[in-house]
Design goal:
Number of strands: 20
Distance between the termini: 18 Å
Structural class: alpha+beta
Largest sheet: 8 strands, mixed
Oligomer: single chain
C-alpha cells in the first residue's frame, strides 16, 4: 500500500465490469484495491438483470467502443468460462425477418461482415423450419458465435480472483463526494449504517453502472452539457410455461428496435432450458429504479413473439423480472455507445459510463484495458 493514501486503487461499483477490472488488477498482482458497492452484495444491479447473452458483435458500428470491446471480449470470455467452470453454452442465435424486412436483415448481415464476426449464415424459410421447427420467419441470419452464460457464476469467478488477491470490498456504502488532492483522490463515503468517512487512492475507477454519470459529476460538477449523461431504459422479461422447456435450441431475435436503441423482444433460455421473452424497452424519464413487471404488459410480449413462435399461447406467459439499462443520452445514428476514458484533465480517474449491452460480453476486455492503463 502506498504510504500517503489508503489504497492504490478504488473501484466504485461491483457489477460485472467493476469486478472484471478487479480481476485484471489481481492477475497483475495489484493488492491495494478497494471496491465500494452500494448494495448488500456484488452484481445486484444491471449485471444480474439482463438476458445473460454472450454477444457476437453484429449490431454495433465498426468504429464504436461497443464493437471494439465486444469483439475483443467474446472469445476470451468463452475461454475464461471454460477455465473457471462458469456455465455457458455457445448455442448460436437466429435473427429473424418477416416478409418485407429482407433489406434490413441484409444490412445487418453487411454490418456483421464489416465487424468480422465469424460463423454467419443466411437461412431461408425452409432452412429455418428444418433447424428450429417452432420458429417461423421469412428469412434469418444464423450467428454461431453467440451464446449464453450464467452472469452470477461469471461475476463470482471474477470476485474470487479479486478476493484471493486480498482486495477489500465495502458493501452498503455510497460515494457522496470526490475531491482531487494533488496526485490522489479523496472520496467521501456514507455507510454502511450511519458511518461517514473519507478514503483516499491514487487511482479511481468509476464503474458505478446506473449512477456512473453522477459519480463523475462529483468531480466535474453537473453544469457542463458536454460531459456524458445517462438516460435509463427499462426492460421487462416474461417467462414461458414449462411446456416450452428445451423446445428451441438457439436464441431467437427479431430485427433491432431502432426507436428505443434495443435488440427487440427476443427468446432466450437458461441452464435448465427454461425459456423467457424480453426485454422490451421503455424510456424512464425520472431515472426511477422501479423493477415492477406489469402482468398486463404480457399482451405486447405475446404479440411480438407470436410473429416468430406461432405455437405460442397467451397463457404461456407470466411476469418474471426487469432490468434498467444505463444508456448515454448522446447517440450516433440511433446508437448509444460506451464512454470509457482515462480522463486527461483528471489523471488517475477512469470513467466507465453507459455500459449497457454488450457490457457482460465486453467485461473481460474492458477490465484488461483499464488494468493496463493503471499498471502497464
Amino acid at each position: 500500500m502506498t504510504a500517503d493514501v489508503d489504497y492504490d486503487i478504488i473501484i466504485v461499483g461491483a457489477g460485472a465490469v467493476g469486478l472484471a477490472v478487479a480481476r485484471a488488477l489481481a492477475v497483475r498482482e495489484e493488492t491495494s484495491v478497494l471496491i465500494i458497492e452500494k448494495e448488500m452484495g456484488f452484481g445486484q444491479g444491471t449485471s444480474s438483470r439482463n438476458s445473460e447473452v454472450i454477444h457476437s458483435g453484429i449490431y454495433y458500428p465498426a468504429s464504436s467502443l461497443k464493437a471494439k470491446y465486444c469483439l475483443a471480449g467474446r472469445e476470451p470470455l468463452y475461454a475464461f468460462c471454460r477455465e473457471n467452470d462458469v456455465w455457458n453454452s455457445k448455442c448460436g442465435k437466429l435473427v429473424v425477418a418477416k416478409a418485407g424486412q429482407e433489406s434490413q436483415l441484409e444490412a445487418l448481415h453487411r454490418q456483421a461482415e464489416t465487424n468480422a464476426v465469424p460463423e454467419l449464415c443466411m437461412m431461408s424459410r425452409s432452412e429455418i423450419a428444418a433447424a428450429e421447427p417452432e420458429v417461423s420467419a421469412e428469412s434469418a441470419m444464423f450467428v454461431g458465435c453467440t451464446g449464453i452464460v450464467s452472469a452470477h457464476e461469471l461475476m463470482s469467478a471474477y470476485h474470487r480472483v479479486s478476493a484471493e488477491a486480498d482486495h477489500d470490498m465495502l458493501l452498503k456504502a455510497v460515494v457522496v463526494d470526490a475531491d482531487r488532492k494533488g496526485d490522489s483522490y479523496a472520496l467521501q463515503v456514507e455507510g454502511p449504517g450511519d458511518a461517514a468517512y473519507a478514503v483516499t487512492a491514487r487511482w479511481v475507477v468509476n464503474s458505478a453502472g446506473l449512477h456512473s454519470d453522477t459519480i463523475a459529476q462529483l468531480l466535474w460538477g453537473s453544469d457542463d452539457p458536454s460531459r456524458p449523461a445517462l438516460r435509463y431504459s427499462k426492460g421487462a422479461y416474461f417467462k414461458l410455461s414449462g411446456k416450452w422447456r428445451h423446445r428451441v435450441e438457439r436464441l431467437v431475435y427479431p430485427l433491432p428496435d431502432a426507436e428505443h436503441d434495443s435488440l427487440g423482444i427476443h427468446l432466450s433460455f437458461d441452464q435448465a432450458g427454461d425459456m423467457k421473452l424480453g426485454p422490451d424497452a421503455a424510456w424512464v424519464d425520472n431515472r426511477s429504479e422501479d423493477y415492477t413487471v406489469k402482468a398486463e404488459d404480457s399482451d405486447l410480449f405475446y404479440r411480438e413473439a407470436k410473429q416468430y413462435l406461432p405455437a405460442l399461447e397467451r397463457d404461456d406467459l407470466s411476469p418474471d423480472y426487469s432490468g434498467i439499462r444505463p444508456k448515454l443520452e448522446e447517440t450516433a445514428d440511433g446508437h448509444s455507445d460506451f464512454y470509457i476514458r482515462h480522463e486527461p484533465d483528471c489523471p488517475g480517474w477512469i470513467n466507465l459510463i453507459g455500459i449497457d449491452s454488450p457490457g457482460l460480453t465486453a467485461s473481460l476486455a474492458i477490465g484488461e484495458e483499464v488494468a493496463g492503463w493503471i499498471v502497464d
